[in-house]
Automatic annotation (TrEMBL), chain A:
Any coiled-coil regions, as ranges: none
Designated name of the protein: N-acetyl-D-glucosamine ABC transport system, permease protein 2
Locations listed in the record: Cell membrane
Listed PANTHER family: ABC TRANSPORTER PERMEASE PROTEIN MG189-RELATED, ABC TRANSPORTER PERMEASE PROTEIN MG189-RELATED-RELATED
Alphabetized InterPro entries for the sequence: MetI-like, MetI-like_sf
Family: Belongs to the binding-protein-dependent transport system permease family.
Species lineage: Bacteria, Pseudomonadati, Pseudomonadota, Alphaproteobacteria, Hyphomicrobiales
Organism from which the protein derives: Pelagibacterium halotolerans (strain DSM 22347 / JCM 15775 / CGMCC 1.7692 / B2)
Segment forming the signal sequence: none
Residues in ABC transmembrane type-1 domain copies: 82-271
TM spans (from-to): 23-44, 81-104, 116-138, 150-171, 252-271
From TrEMBL, chain B:
Residues annotated as transmembrane: 27-47, 91-112, 124-144, 174-198, 227-247, 285-307
Sorted UniProt keywords: Cell membrane, Membrane, Transmembrane, Transmembrane helix, Transport
GO cellular component: plasma membrane
Stated family: Belongs to the binding-protein-dependent transport system permease family.
Entry superkingdom: Bacteria
GO biological process: transmembrane transport
This protein's name: ABC transporter, membrane spanning protein (Sugar)
Annotated ABC transmembrane type-1 domain residues: 87-303
Membrane topology: Multi-pass membrane protein
Coiled-coil segments on the chain, per record: none
Origin species: Pelagibacterium halotolerans (strain DSM 22347 / JCM 15775 / CGMCC 1.7692 / B2)
Principal place of residence: membrane
């Protein structure tokens, strides 16, 4: 009797799921989603228009042209900023994957005096806003000649407390037996970490890598402070200065903005599943 | 004993290493692993924190040696009308931005969670703005807000016959206009986190509630929202901190008069940036960073308190 009642309820729920209400929900969500990417659509659309067509409200340009892209790319600055952003983001990401994992692993898998103290000390740095540190960092950079250098842009982010915390949480799920077996086989501790433990937390590493890369690729505040010369600007800082110069030529600014956006969109298309999962992992662990 | 000595004489490093106990070896590994990170955290995080506090009690323009002046920077800040304007702006971003962005992202996540048809595609539409560069998107929105005939929004207002709006040129509309950009940029992240939270609620709870005859509204109020509390608290704090630290959008959308018009959009971080790197008033800027730190600390402690009384 009860079983039949349950099945009936399920049937009713299933038939309910194809009600017109569902179609309305879907339609509203779709319209909202299109509204969300409207700024991106207009950005791309305008980047394909000539200066005279900018005021045209039509989304699809009457005569699309890549002239703006050729103009922006031909003066070479964008290429340089693009290179700077890539170099900085890649180096900082590699450093974070290496050090955050190493520290997270050590804190998760070794018993030693001071372990808790170090963990709390690292975690406590999450409370300190970057804005508070930039003045001392700037002084340090000035004294050591790091202003206007790649190292100057990179050094504050080489390790993060968030990454260390994330990795520690994941290394705690790795069974000790695997590590002990490797020790019996005579592997040294570094090899055990790198060859045995690291592959076991690959999803967490990809989440950390994606987050660090995106964060550094779009970073604005510190690169703005620590760079003075155009050659060392990262893409966001370069674009900002470029837009100030071009403040009347909106089609050029939109082209620059599009050039800064295209790489992340491509990365998203390729790594969509990992990025969404990475955001979920990081959000839930944070 | 003599063999050990001769052994250490021939292959010294491994000889000494082999004489250590397993525990000692592990301890050496631990501190080898931690040596560089410990130096990093001390030099790049802890020392600068202490230095920022110390600098906030000094008068320093980078050229002359720093001079200790006690709490003068703080009294100056207290008596600075610009600081109170900036303080109000910063809290306007927080108090209006956080609830609006949370309500919208929850509503989208709640309904998106039930959508099967082209779920991934629709989710991507909402998520894409989160992946863009704030500095680049600020310029796109700045163009949207331009007066007619340049700006897109005024263009459409013109088509529908509505009066043109000044947006970024108005002391009243500029801050909300920038806030829309910031909300738009963060929405995708919040939606994904809310959806992860919704996914984590066991389906059996819903089934039981439906069998008990609870309506959708009652299920939302009695099951979904209470079970989603940790996610919501996390997002409230995450989003609050984001709005309290707003900079990229404001800087780029008002770069001809940063924080304008008439300082009505200037947030605390922009004031810090200008005091430190345009006026080179390092001590005064440091005092402003201490105020920001205190505000963020209070927000974080509130989170801990809310989670504890669960």
């Amino acid at each position: 009797m009860t079983a039949t009642a349950a099945t009936n309820t399920e049937l009713r729920l299933n038939s309910a799921s194809i009600r017109p209400g569902r179609v309305l929900t879907w339609t509203l969500l779709f319209i909202g989603g299109v509204l969300m990417i409207t700024p991106l659509l207009f950005m791309f659309s305008t980047s394909l228009k000539t200066a005279g067509q900018v005021y045209d409200l039509r989304l699809i340009p009457a005569a699309p042209t890549f002239d703006n892209y050729l103009k922006v790319l031909s003066d070479g600055r964008f290429m340089r900023w693009f290179f700077n952003s890539t170099l900085v983001a890649v180096c900082v990401t590699l450093s974070n994957v290496f050090f955050d994992s190493l520290v997270g692993y050590t804190l998760a898998k070794f018993q030693f005096r001071g372990r808790y103290l170090i963990f709390i000390a690292i975690l406590s740095t999450l409370m300190i806003p970057t804005e508070m540190l930039v003045i001392p960092w700037y002084l340090m950079s000035a004294q050591l000649g790091w202003i206007d250098s790649y190292w100057g842009i990179m050094f504050p982010g080489m390790m993060t407390a968030f990454g260390t915390f994330l990795m520690k949480q994941f290394f705690e799920t790795v069974p000790d037996d695997f590590l002990e077996a490797a020790r019996v086989d005579g592997l040294n501790e570094f090899t055990i970490w790198w060859k045995i433990a690291m592959p076991m937390v690959a999803p967490a590493i990809s989440a950390l890598a994606i987050f660090t890369f995106l964060g550094n690729w779009t970073a604005f505040f510190w690169p703005l402070i620590v760079t003075n010369s155009r050659e060392l600007y990262t893409l966001p800082v370069g674009l900002s200065s470029f837009a100030v110069e071009q403040s009347i030529q909106w089609e050029m600014i939109m082209t620059g903005a599009a050039l800064a956006t295209i790489p992340t969109l491509l990365v998203f298309l390729v790594l969509q599943r990992y990025i969404v999962r990475g955001v979920m992992l990081a959000g839930l662990k944070g | 004993m003599t063999s050990a000595v001769s052994a250490s004489g021939t292959v010294e490093p491994s000889g000494t290493w082999n004489r250590l106990s397993i525990g000692q070896k592990r301890l050496i590994w631990v501190w080898t692993f931690l040596a560089l990170p410990v130096v990093f955290y001390v030099v790049i995080r802890f020392y600068p924190t202490v230095q920022a506090f110390w600098l906030s009690f000094t008068d320093w323009d980078l050229l002359r040696p720093a001079q200790f002046i006690g709490i003068e920077n703080y009294t100056k800040l207290y008596n600075d009308p610009l600081f109170w304007q900036v303080f109000r702006n910063t809290f306007a971003y927080l108090i209006i931005g956080t609830p609006i962005s949370l309500v919208i992202s929850f509503a989208v996540a709640y309904y998106l969670d039930r959508v099967r048809f082209m779920h991934g595609f629709i989710r991507a539409l909402y998520f894409l703005p989160f992946l863009t560069t704030a500095a680049a998107m600020a310029w796109v929105w700045r163009w949207f807000y331009q007066p007619p005939p340049i700006g897109i929004i005024n263009g459409f207002l013109g088509v529908t016959g509505l009066p043109a709006q000044p947006f970024l040129r108005s002391t009243e509309q500029a801050l909300p206009a920038i806030m829309v950009t910031a909300i738009w940029a963060g929405l995708g992240f919040q939606i994904i986190i809310f959806m992860a939270g919704l996914r984590a609620i066991p389906q059996t709870y819903y089934e039981a509630a439906r069998i008990d005859g609870l309506g959708e509204w009652a299920i939302l109020r009695k099951i979904t929202l209470p079970l989603l509390k940790p996610t919501t608290v996390f997002l409230v704090v995450f989003s609050s901190i984001g709005f309290l630290r707003i900079f990229d959008q404001v800087y780029n959308m008002t770069s001809n008069d940063p924080g304008g018009p008439l300082n009505t959009t200037k947030p605390l971080v922009l004031m810090i940036y200008q005091t430190a790197f345009s006026s080179f008033n390092m001590g005064y800027a440091a005092a402003q960073t201490v105020v920001l730190f205190t505000i963020l600390l209070i927000v974080s402690l509130l989170q801990l308190w809310v989670l504890r009384t669960r």
